[in-house]
Amino acid sequence: MGDAAQRWRERQAARGIPAAILAAAPADPWVHDPAAFTPPAVPADTPSHRAARALAERSAALSCSGASVLDVGCGGGEAAFGAVGTEPSPVARVVGVDRQADMLAVFAAAAAERRLPHATVHGDWPEAAPRAGRHDVVVCHHVLHNVVDLPPFLAALTAAVRTRGGAGGVVVEMLPEHPMAWLDPLWGRFHDLHRPPSATAEDAVAVLVEELGTTPEVRTWQRDRRLPHDARWVTRRLCLPADREPEVARELAGIPPRRTDAVTLTWSP
Ligand SMILES: C[S@@+](CC[C@H](N)C(=O)[O-])C[C@H]1O[C@@H](n2cnc3c(N)ncnc32)[C@H](O)[C@@H]1O
Predict the structure, then answer these.
(1) Is the pLDDT of residue 124 over 90?
(2) For a substitution probing ligand 1, which of 71, 104, 143 has the most ligand atoms within 8 Å of its CB?
(3) Region 86-94 average pLDDT
(4) Which protein residues are within 6 Å of ligand 1, measured from CB?
(5) Which domains occur in the chain, in start order?
(6) What is the Cα–Cα distance from 258 to 231, expressed in whole angstroms?
(7) What is the pLDDT of residue 228?
(8) How far is the CA of 215 from the centre of ligand 1 (A)?
(9) What is the three-class DSSP state of 222?
(10) Protein residue closest via CA to atom 14 of ligand 1
(11) Per the database record, which ranges form the Methyltransferase domain (predicted)?
């Protein structure tokens, strides 16, 4: 394993919650609420969605048939439906992969509502990759910071691209640092837990270059979508009981707000 992959591994491993804190948590701090991931009826016009749509258009033009989009860690499918965009769409089919079955239900319902042929694959990436097949466009939004062993995860994203005439590609969206890094001062305050620096988007790019020989196109931009950050949500993330919420609210007021910049990485095999 090269230096960049090792750095990613160490920084991500250090994001774990110690077993004693987790055992005392009144609610699972990790699990995502699928309702929060219902994709908007009209996708936001973002660099990631535009990049995926452009790849789909290129693939559809070359193959004279609609493009297929694979969404890895799909949640409700905001990334896939962002590539679909407005009609007429170059996307003919979407496939969602997620380790949470309830997310796949939201994804399938959203695809059915849009009358879009679809399939779901329940499982962990990259182990689930053989069941997902190959597609013109592979999108993966806000999943990398869940991953410790990044090289096989990224390699499987690239390998899932169907290279018809070199038209397809991968679009990854992530935050510049771990989505919970802004709460590090509160882990210190409430649990005396002092975390090392977060893995960054630059670290992910370094892994791509080092392990796959791939230099992605990198775009940094501002998201307008409201990110969860209220005291109730943070109390749960910090493994604290609900009656600590007022204290959490006071401490939250004293730390820098959650960052709103996002990074889009695009590459073709
Ligand atoms: C923060 S959510 C993002 C969902 C969606 N991509 C979006 O941007 O709205 C992360 C999703 O990835 C899923 N996930 C995380 N790691 C995964 C893995 N290794 N394999 C499959 N799904 C994963 C989680 O269950 C969750 O639904």
Answers:
(1) yes
(2) 143
(3) 92
(4) 32, 37, 73-75, 78-79, 97-100, 103, 124-125, 141-143, 146
(5) 3-267 (3.40.50.150)
(6) 13
(7) 63
(8) 24
(9) strand
(10) 73
(11) 69-165
